[in-house]
C-alpha cells in the first residue's frame, strides 16, 4: 500500500514534533494507533463477510471440484507421461547408435573382466590346493619320522637332572619347628 521506510518515518516524526509539539504528541500517536486498529478491524470484517458469502454461494466448492477434475485428467497425475516417455525412448532406440555401440563395448569389457577374475580365482584355488596337499604330505612325513609339526622331536628323551654347583645353589634357612 504505502511504501514508508525508516527515513520517511523519521521525517514524519520530526515534523509532527515541531507542528504538534512535545506536549500533545503522545495523544496524537495514541489517536493514530486507535484509528489504524479500527481500519484493520473493518478490513478483517469485510474480508470475513466476503468469504462467508462465497461459502454460502458454493464458490469454494466449485474451485475445489474444478481443481480435482484438473488433477484427475492430468497425465502427470496419472503417471502416463512417464510411461509415454519410456515407450518413446524404447521405440527410438537404435542399436547402431553411439549409445548402442557404447553399450556393446561395455558389455564386452565387462565379460573380459569376469573371465579374467574367474581365471585368477581358479589359479588361486589350484595354488591353495597344492599348498594344502604339500602341508598334508609334510605332516604325514613328520609323523613317520618322529617329528611334530613345528619341526621338534615329538617325544624328546628325558634329561638327567644334574646337581647345581654349591656356589650357585640358593641357601634356604632351616625350618623352625612349630611350638604348637
Main attributes?
6 helices; about 0% strand; single chain; mainly alpha
Structural class of the helix and strand makeup?
mainly alpha
| String of helices and strands | HHHHHH
Rg (CA only): 51 Å
- First-to-last CA distance: 115 Å
Tell me the number of strands.
Answer: 0
Specify the overall morphology.
elongated
Helix content: over 70%
Average pLDDT = 77
* Proportion of beta-strand residues: under 5%
Helix run count: 6
The low-confidence parts are none
Q: Biggest sheet: strands, sense, closure?
A: none
Characterization of this structure:
This protein is an all-alpha fold and 180 residues long. It has a domain at 101-144. Helix content is 71%, strand content 0%. The protein is built from six helices and no strands. The mean pLDDT is 77.
Write the layout of secondary structure elements.
Blueprint: H1 6-20, H2 25-57, H3 59-73, H4 75-78, H5 80-92, H6 98-145
Provide a short characterization of the protein structure.
With 180 residues, the chain is an all-alpha fold.
Amino acid at each position: 500500500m504505502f511504501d514508508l521506510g525508516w527515513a520517511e518515518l523519521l521525517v514524519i516524526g520530526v515534523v509532527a514534533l515541531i507542528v504538534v509539539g512535545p506536549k500533545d504528541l503522545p495523544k496524537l500517536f495514541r489517536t493514530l494507533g486507535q484509528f489504524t486498529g479500527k481500519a484493520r478491524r473493518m478490513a478483517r470484517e469485510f474480508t470475513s463477510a466476503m468469504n462467508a458469502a462465497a461459502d454460502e454461494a458454493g464458490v469454494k466448492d466449485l474451485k475445489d471440484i474444478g481443481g480435482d477434475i484438473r488433477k484427475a485428467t492430468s497425465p502427470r497425475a496419472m503417471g502416463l507421461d512417464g510411461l509415454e516417455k519410456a515407450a518413446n525412448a524404447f521405440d527410438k532406440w537404435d542399436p547402431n547408435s553411439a549409445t548402442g555401440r557404447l553399450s556393446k563395448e561395455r558389455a564386452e569389457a565387462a565379460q573380459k573382466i569376469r573371465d579374467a577374475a574367474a581365471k585368477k580365482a581358479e589359479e588361486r584355488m589350484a595354488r591353495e590346493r597344492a599348498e594344502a596337499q604339500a602341508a598334508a604330505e609334510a605332516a604325514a612325513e613328520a609323523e613317520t619320522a618322529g617329528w611334530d609339526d613345528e619341526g621338534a622331536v615329538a617325544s624328546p628323551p628325558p634329561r638327567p637332572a644334574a646337581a647345581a654347583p654349591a656356589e650357585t645353589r640358593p641357601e634356604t634357612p632351616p625350618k623352625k619347628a612349630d611350638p604348637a
